[in-house]
Amino acid sequence: MLLSDGTYVRAGYRHAGPARVLIRRLKYEGVEAAARVLAERMAVVEPSPPGVVVPIPRVTVRLVRYGVDPARLLAKWFAVETGGVVADVLASPLWAARHAGRGRMQRRQVSYRLRGVPPASVVLIDDVLTTGRTLESAREALADSRVVGLTATAAGRVRG
User: Fold this and answer.
1) Is 123:148 a contact under the CB 8 Å cutoff?
2) Strands 121-129 and 52-55: what pairing?
3) Strand 113-114 to strand 90-91: parallel, antiparallel, or no bridges (unpaired)?
4) Domain boundaries in the chain?
5) Tens digit of pLDDT for each residue in 122-141?
6) What per-residue confidence (pLDDT) applies to 159?
7) What string of DSSP letters covers 69-99?
8) Which CATH class is domain 8-154?
């Protein structure tokens, strides 16, 4: 899938069946083994040497509530699979409206900001691709970097 800014995004699985269950277990129960299984497939889908892997951080309120940052765990295991290095160069806002269950027009821009100098080229990691809004927001913060997006699952019209 291409985002509106031309960033190319791939997904390991379609957001259905067992992959959807793994995402739920990861996001809401903190099951790290789910991240490892999903990241193995992500490494197959994006086999080129990643270099720097940048997770899109979970909004702070949800990180505190659920105790897990799904993209951070996916990035960790993706880096293990590919030999990449994880760089936490994005910071999330304290709060943002939930996107789950909302259409593109109902989703608000999430304002990610840089923490440090962004790498020249990155694989940007998130858990689920629905409309691409979250990836677009994170991509804006990495304005000077060459970015490839990679998610564990993709919903809707997106092909994995």
Assistant:
1) yes
2) parallel
3) antiparallel
4) 8-154
5) 999 999 998 888 888 899 99
6) 44
7) -HHHHHHHHHHHHHT-EE---EE--S-----
8) alpha beta
